[in-house]
Amino acid sequence: MNDGWSIEKEALSIVDERECMKYGAGDHPDIEDKIRNKDNLLLTRLKEVYVDSSDPSSEVQTKESASAQEELRLPKLTVNRETLMDLDVESIPKGKISVLEALTLLNNHKNSPETWTAKKISEDYHLDSKKTQALLEYFIPFNVKMIPPKDKKQITDS
């Protein structure tokens, strides 16, 4: 039984509210006077405010310059530009590795832990030995093995 009357009524009430807001300030001249007149108390308080600024301390400047002069190394592995699009890494800070390098060294350690020890990895990639040991201990790459369904025949080694 909706004949559209309630929608029209709501639309009219919204328009009426907007009209009231437009002419509402003219009905109260005391508000307009407060807006146009200066508040002397506020002005005197603002004049009492004193702001003192100075350059950052020399310690902050030396930290910023030290981070700008951080030692960089060339990446051990590179990937074609098409694979990574615009993420071409040209230099890596010493003490850090790229994701590709991390995956590679974790896989190398998993395949031959005797040759790829934590000490060798930390020397090759300029990493902290404790962090390298923690990386090898807690980030273990896993093998994905697909188990065929039982209804299919399996190929056996001959």
A few lines on this structure:
This protein is an all-alpha fold and 158 residues long. The chain is built from eight helices and two strands.
Tell me what the structure shows.
By secondary structure, this protein is mainly alpha-helical. Among the domains are: 10-47, no CATH class; 72-138, Arc Repressor Mutant, subunit A (Orthogonal Bundle), CATH 1.10.10. The protein is 51% helix and 3% strand. It has eight helices and two strands; from the N terminus they run ααααβαβααα. The chain has helices spanning 5-23, 29-36, 40-48, 58-68, 81-84, 99-111, 118-124, 129-138, and strands at residues 72-73, 92-93. It has a two-stranded antiparallel sheet. The radius of gyration is 36 Å and the shape is elongated. The model has no long low-confidence stretch (mean pLDDT 74). This is NADH dehydrogenase [ubiquinone] 1 alpha subcomplex assembly factor 4.
> What is the H-and-E element order?
HHHHEHEHHH
Residue windows where pLDDT falls under 50 for at least 5 positions: none
- SS-based structural class? mainly alpha
Strand runs, count: 2
* Helical coverage, percent range: 40-55%
Mean pLDDT: 74
Envelope shape = elongated
Percentage of residues in strands: under 5%
Tell me the number of helical segments per DSSP (H or I, 4 or more residues long): 8
Rg from Cα: 36 Å
Largest sheet data: 2 strands, antiparallel
Please identify, by name, the CATH architecture of the domain at 72-138: Orthogonal Bundle
In angstroms, what separates the terminal alpha carbons?
A: 81 Å
- The oligomerization state is single chain
- The top-level CATH class of the domain at 72-138 is Mainly Alpha
As for the CATH topology of the domain at 72-138, it is Arc Repressor Mutant, subunit A
Order of strands, main sheet, comes to: 1-2
